[in-house]
Structure formats: structure tokens, C-alpha cells
Amino acid sequence: MSEETVSGDFLNLENAAPVADNDPPHALEAVYDIPVTVSAVLGHATMQVSQLLKLGRGAVVELDKKVGEAIDIYVNNRLIARGEVVMVDESRLGVTMTEIIKSEKAN
Q1: Which of 62, 65, 59 has its CA nearest to residue 43?
Q2: Dihedral of alpha carbons 80, 94, 29, 31, sign
Q3: Does pLDDT of 107 surpass 50?
Q4: How far apart are alpha carbons 59 and 28 in whole angstroms?
Q5: Cα separation of 82 and 63, whole Å?
Q6: In this structure, what DSSP letter does residue 76 have?
Q7: Which segments within the chain are labelled E, that is strand?
Q8: 3-state helix, strand, coil in the chain (%, to 5)
Q9: CB within 8 A of 61, min separation 6: which ones?
Q10: 79 neighbors 101 (Cβ within 8 angstroms)
Q11: What number is the average pLDDT over the span 7-24?
């Protein structure tokens, strides 16, 4: 799959008709193949560069989340949900969404 840059008014969604809940599923087919980046953030930490340089194998970086607290799920750097880490198989992790975040549109 290759990535292409879209320029101009080719993909101007500002004036597009809104998709209603009762519209057929094929109304969104044009966007089904657009790749997005999904990130699951376990937490954050802030430290000085000197502290960062002292980290070595086995070092523990304390995050701002507690065990069992929901993690943030982002799509293209936009928070869309919260969830929990799950084991997919013996060597892979996944995320199950427990809360969808409804964003307020600015007008």
C-alpha cells in the first residue's frame, strides 16, 4: 500500500453532506482504505536529560497512571477512547476499548 499526498480541493470535506446514522454503510466506503495511526498510551513521565542519560537496562520509569487505571487510545494523535490492556496471545498485547470519547466540534 502506498501513501499519496492529496492537495487542493480534491478532498474537501468541509462542504460534504453529513453522514446520518440511517445512511447505508457504503456512504463511507471512500475513506475505508485511508491508513491511520492508532496509539495506546500507558502513561507519561517528565524527567531531566541528565536523569534520562542515567537510565540503563532494567531501569524503571514511573508513569503518571496507576495500575488498573484506563489507558488513553489515540487515532492520529486525537484522543478517541479509553481502554484496558489485554493479552492477545502468549507474546502479544492488545487494547480493549471501555469508553468512547465524544469530541465536541468547535464552530
Answers
A1: 65
A2: positive
A3: no
A4: 46
A5: 17
A6: T
A7: 38-41, 71-75, 78-89, 92-100
A8: 10, 30, 60
A9: 45, 47, 55
A10: yes
A11: 50
Alpha-carbon distance of 40 to 85, in angstroms, equals 9
C-alpha to C-alpha distance for 50 and 30, rounded to whole angstroms: 49
Domains for the chain: give ranges and CATH numbers: 34-100 (2.30.330.10)
What is the rounded CA–CA span in Å between residue 81 and residue 101?
A: 5
Q: How far apart are CA 82 and CA 98, in angstroms?
A: 6
pLDDT at 40 over 80: yes
**pLDDT of 98 higher than 70:** yes
Backbone φ/ψ region at 93: left (φ over 0), alpha (ψ -120 to 50), beta: beta
Residue 95 in contact with residue 81, Cβ under 8 Å? no
Check whether 91 has a pLDDT greater than 70: yes
Q: What is the pTM assigned to this prediction? A: 0.64
